[in-house]
Amino acid sequence: MQVQLTVNGKQVSVDVPPNTLLVQTIREHLHLTGTHVGCDTAQCGACTVILNGRAVKSCNVLAAQVAGAEITTIEGLAKEDGTLHPMQAAFKECHGLQCGFCTTGMVMSAVDLCNHHPKADETEIRELLEGNICRCTGYQNIVKAVVLGKTNMAATA
Ligand code: FES
Ligand code: FES
Asked: Keywords, A to Z (predicted)?
């Protein structure tokens, strides 16, 4: 079936079987491989994207269910000139990653968190990120990065 989406500001049309997951559509049909698949069962958060303004686990959604939606993936965060999004810059500055596998999902969830909970303190940030798992267990620096990223996002809003 044909599914129209707006991905990172561009309108796209993909021809996918009706049972195609959104994450498969993003990775295999649109070749945006920054969105990762860790578990495929809505546990780890590696596949997180922003769908119509909210973070979702794209392994838990069919592309056909979200026809017409606006989606932002990690590739859509930085500016065209390569300037990192404030949250990406904060992860870089705070060394908020080790192997990097969870990182794109963490960053997308962190952006969503800051958009919807701009006053979240460190404890709330830890709770709000509970859907994202880091197998390298580098949570201390991830949380530091989100705290800094929240400040950076507020400063550039
Ligand atoms: Fe989607 Fe793990 S791959 S939550
Ligand atoms: Fe390796 Fe999080 S940095 S899984």
From this structure: 2Fe-2S, Iron, Iron-sulfur, Metal-binding, Oxidoreductase
Q: What CATH number should be reported for the domain holding residue 102?
A: 1.10.150.120
The kind and range of the H/E element at 11 are: strand 10-15
Which among 111, 92, 104 has a CA at the least distance from the CA of 156?
111
The H or E element containing residue 71 is strand 70-72
Ligand 2, atom 2, lies closest to the CA of: 134
- CATH code (residue 28): 3.10.20.30
Verify that 97 and 146 share a domain, yes or no: yes
Look up the domain containing 44 and give its range: 2-76
On whether residue 81 sits in a domain, the answer given is no
Question: Do 57 and 95 belong to one domain?
Answer: no
Helix (H, G, I), strand (E, B) or coil at 90: helix
Q: Is the CB of 154 under 6 A from ligand 2?
A: no
Give the number of the atom of ligand 2 that is nearest the alpha carbon of residue 38. 4
Tell me the ipTM for this assembly: 0.98
Ligand 2 pocket, residue 135 CB under 6 Å:
yes
The tens-digit pLDDT sequence of the chain (157 residues) is 999 999 999 999 999 999 999 999 999 999 999 999 999 999 999 999 999 999 999 999 999 999 999 999 999 999 999 999 999 999 999 999 999 999 999 999 999 999 999 999 999 999 999 999 999 999 999 999 999 999 999 998 7
